[in-house]
Structures are given as C-alpha cells and as structure tokens.
Sequence to fold (219 residues):
Amino acid sequence: MNYFSPFVTNFCVIYTLWAWKFILYFVGFSCTRIFHVIIIWRLALDNYGELHFLQPFGQTPVVEDGDFRLFESRAIIRYYAAKYADRGPDLLGTTLEERALVEQWLEVEAHNFNDLCFTMMLQLVILPRMGKPGNLALAHSCEQELGKVLDVYERRLSESTYLAGDNFSLADLSHLPGLGHLIEEANMGHLVAERKKVNAWWEKISSRPAWKKLKDLAQ
Fold:
C-alpha cells in the first residue's frame, strides 16, 4: 500500500520521525527496509480520510509492522527498541531501576523539553519558510524556559555520562532530532555550548556513527 504524497515534504513530520528511524538503523535495518516496514508521512488533503483510518486522530507518525499498527512516536521507538534489542546496545535498561530512569527522562523530554523546542522551531524556522511571520516574543520566552530545562540537564549530567545513567539509551536518543534542528536551523547552539556538561553530552550522542550515517542518508 502506498500512503506517500510525492509533493508533501512537511518539516513537522520530519521533526517527529528522526528518533525512531535512528533506532531502526541502529539495530541494523537497511534504509530500504525501514520504509518497507513503516508507513509514515503527511497525506495529501484528498487522502485525509485514509490517514484517519490509520490513525484515529489523523496525525503522523503511524507504523505498520506486518499486521501490527502503532502510532505515537515515543511508543514507536519503545516498540522497536524492545523488538530488536538483540541487534545492538541495550537502549531500555536491563534492571528495573535502569528502565525506570530511562522512562523518567523520556517523560522529561516529552513534557519539559519537546514542546519548548518545537514551539521555537515553529516560530523561528517553520512559519518563516511558509512565508508567515513567527512570533519572536514567544520564541524568546521559550528560549528562556528551555535554558532552565537545560540547567537541570547540566546538573544531572554532572552525575552521569548520559541522562539515565552511564549508558546511552532512548532517553538520550529522543533528544537528537530536536536539539539538532535547534542548533543547525534555528541558530540556538548557544543553549548547548554555554553548558559544559550538556555540550559534552551533545557531542557524544550527536557523533554516534549511526546518527551521522542516517543524517547523510537523509540529505
């Protein structure tokens, strides 16, 4: 089945897809296989009803893995990290406590980081690309709030190499898309560079070979 719209290249969709695509690449899927397993993209308006058939809220992402269908990006990355856990480093934690910390920082990313990050991208990058003015005051307010969030990260990363402990996990991976876009497209790299521990953490996670290769493939 083909749910792709050839003329739709919506940044908002791309923004939400990086993390789970990275997991699939990380565990050894070829890029071709990724897109055979996953049906994700914003549909053209004339296919909007079809998207509602796939996802009850009419939103992306949605995946179909055989007969199994799943939506919500963080549910998707958890699913694939667990399904292919034997193909690479553990991303979910091995003990109850480790898994709890991964989940804790995934929740922080979802509720404390992501909304601020996306609002900044919307106002500073997405709306201007659509020929519409962004709300600079709102973007600045979010920048200040995100700085406070990253101050918490700075304190946490003074205690451990990664957010959930001393091993790279989904908690770190889920930050790669948002921070990458903020740094590369919204010129907000100072938010990271001004914080020594956050900057060192970012250098570690963004230099991982799988992430770099995926970015190359996406060019």
Observations:
- Confidence is low (pLDDT under 50) at residues 1-18, 27-46.
- The chain is about 60% helix and 5% strand.
- Strands lie at 62-65, 68-71.
